[in-house]
Amino acid sequence: MQEIHASQVRPPFYRDERVLGIFSQLLVVVIVVGLGLFFYSNMITGLREKHNVAISFSFLSQAAGFDIGESLIEYSRERTYLRAFVVGLLNTFQVAFLGIIFATALGIVIGVMRLSTNFLVSRIASIYIDIFRNIPLLVLLIFWAQAVFLKLPRVAEAIILPGPIFLSNRGVAIPWGIPTDSWGAFLLVLAAGVLLGAVISYFLREQGKRTGRMPLITLWFLVTVAAVGLVGWIVLPQPMTLDQPFLEGFNTQGGKILSQQFMALLSGLIIYTAAFIAEVVRAGIQSVSKGQREAATSLGLNPAQTLRLIIFPQALRVIIPPLTSQYLNLTKNSSLAIAIGYPDLFAVAGNTILNQTGREIEMFTMIMGTYLSLSLLTSFLMNIYNRRIRLVER
Amino acid sequence: MKGMRKLKKAGMILSMVVGMIIAACMSPAAGPEVVESDEAAAPAMQEVQSTLSIVQERGKLVCIGNAQLPGFGFLDSEGNFSGFDVDYCRAIAAAIFGDANALEVRPATAKERFTILSSGEGDVIIRNTTWTMSRDTDLGMNFGPTTFYDGQGLMVRKESGVATLQDLQGASVCVVTGTTTELNLADQFAAAGVDYEAVVFEDFDQSFTAYDEGRCDAVTTDKSSLVSRQTTLTVPADHVIINVTLSKEPLGPAVRHGDDQWFDIVNWVVYATMLAEEHGISSQNVDSFMDSNDPNIRKLLGLEGDFCAKIGLSNAGCFVDVIKQLGNYAEIYDRNLGPDTVFDLPRGLNSLYTDGGILYAPPIR
Question: How far is CA A36 from CA A45, A282, B26, B230, in A?
Fold first, then answer.
């Protein structure tokens, strides 16, 4: 204590810890920035001397010249490299989005199964987790692509399921709706239904607060939306027609084709990530103290109600942060698509565009920037959700 | 307490001093004006270490090759590389060291080969590489004489009855990325007005596996590779290469821009094999030509003039070593692709100009 009093007399600056602290931090910043500048200028000089090129993104507006097997937006070889890049990005986005949804659903089911008191159910879940968590994802992907989907019958002898759904080693062809002219009007009707549903739920909630008996608000909301939607579907002149796949020439035509590569990538990612999510869910559920379950039981809640109303909301707080990192992993892991021929962001940009243009630094800056933005966006959304469920606490 | 604080302070001062020293070392490079002076010094440094001297110091040639293409560059089960392209790697090694085995083949994918060469990890690419203008300019390559005139083709299943591009309407086509084939495919199919689905793989093996399993109706790459790869399919006889050529594919060795002496060595080793065939000199009979009176032959065999010295090689019989150990162009071709091999690829364009082909080597004089 006395020392602190003594230090109230300020020492000269070269012995002042505060000044020294600030100074050393500044120094570290200077060194880091200096090193960065050094490597950057080294790269620029190297590029100029060795290859006589400068960093430039102008090639992005040139015609790409190559075709991409599957695309969510209109694309042809006359379009620009930038367009090709976006096609790859959307393909990545599609796989990541569907992958996250299915992996979460499967992961929760398996995580809950793992905790089941039924011996068989919990064994099955733990065997699943142990197997798929311990196989490298790349191996799993190539297994799905080459040993499962590529071994399906050829397209001429495709397995035809009712629908019709064509299963072949080209992929899965499913019937798909095609919007007609009245589709926009139908969407408007549906929006009106959602609005009406919201109004009804509001009044139901108010009534619930008054009477102390909460009606099934979500159910009423869904019923309202469905009813309004159904009326719109009947009244309007067919807002959507069903396009069914059929076999013609080399391939199936019509409908929607989920290619073999897409299916392999998606299944691989879902199965692999679900194993991790299951463990996250299990840890979350086990983190809720036993007393909560006992209290719920003594209040007369059945096991399903206990899980849904008591355990899960509390477990979510523990689950969300590691779940977010699993989502990020899934998104980043989707770049392994290159191994099985699915045209995702990395395959299109890091392979084909890079090879055609030879612009390594520009392309990799763009690719890394894009994956970084995707990841930051995912964690941003998950953080919002995390904050919302944390507010519920007390 | 007091001692601890002193220690902490001493540590801080020490780290400051170290930091300053590092900063002092780094700062000249960070300033743009000093970079300019570095620039002046750099080319002089490069001049000293020519590719030839690097190779000679190392004691072996590092050749960027293919490990997956039987007949051209293939890694066999005993770990040896063999093939047409590999033989040209060996020829260069023979010219430099007098020993065709002073060679390391560095297998590379289509995509990474140019980066490996530019970064100096290899000395020359001989890996069924197509000579194109953008590779010649943008990628900073110099292409040696074409060793194999090829064209991109399509292989389909016989039962499909496909004979022309138009027959492939709506088909799936397997293609390998990192090559010019992807662009040629898009161009030619667009020109023919044919819709197709491109299934792009990073790897030759995968592309052909997918085709073999029926994922694709056709597979496309250089015709020579199709012939070579057909032998590896489950039932080779079920497949046929259709009579459509999508592109010109002159394949040959490539070196880095900026080392002309090294470029000359690669060029003249290739020409020497063609000249040897032209003069009827082979690995079997080369010794009998040692007393030849033909000045063209005498120059090729290093009996007259100092042509090997002109490309920086001290061994006056540099081309004799090539011919003795590898043979002339016809021998290299026949050994790897000729009638006695499974490929039985007709010479076609790859005959000497005197036999109706377009191989025409400039004279040594």
Answer: 14, 44, 10, 51
Q: Which residues of A touch B169 (CB under 8 A)?
A: 249-250
The correct answer on CATH 3.40.190.10 for the domain covering B51-147+252-355 is yes
Closest-CA distance of chain A to residue B151, Å: 18
For residue A248, what is the nearest residue in chain B, using CA coordinates?
A: B170
pLDDT one-digit tens code per residue, A269-285: 999 999 999 999 999 99
Quick check: B39 and A77 CB within 8 A?
no
The answer to whether A69 contacts B197, with C-beta atoms less than 8 Å apart, is yes
Provide the Cα torsion B307, B308, B312, B318; round to 10°: 170
Domain ranges for chain B: 51-147+252-355, 150-249
Respond yes or no on whether ipTM tops 0.90.
Answer: no
From the list A170, A339, A351, the residue facing B177 with the nearest CB is A351
Statement: B150-249 belongs to CATH 3.30.360.10:
no
Q: What is the pLDDT of residues A42-63, one digit of tens each?
A: 888 877 776 667 788 888 888 8
Backbone torsions φ then ψ of B65, nearest 5 degrees: -130, -170
State the nearest Cα–Cα gap between A172 and chain B, in angstroms.
12
Instruction: Using a CB–CB cutoff of 8 Å, tell me whether A74 touches chain B.
Output: no
Nearest neighbour of A51 by CB, restricted to B20, B140, B209: B140
Q: How far is B138 from chain A (nearest CA, A)?
A: 7
pLDDT tens-digit map of A91-108: 999 999 999 999 999 999
Please give the radius of gyration of chain A, using alpha carbons only, rounded to the nearest integer. 28
Lowest mean pLDDT among A98-102, A131-135, A387-391, B208-212: A387-391
- For residue B13, the model assigns a pLDDT of 53
pLDDT, tens digit, 9 for 90 and up, residues A181-198: 888 888 888 899 999 999
Tell me the whole-structure pTM to 2 decimals: 0.74
Cα–Cα distance measured from residue B356 to residue B349, given in angstroms and rounded to the nearest whole number: 7
- In angstroms, the CA B130 to CA B141 distance is 11
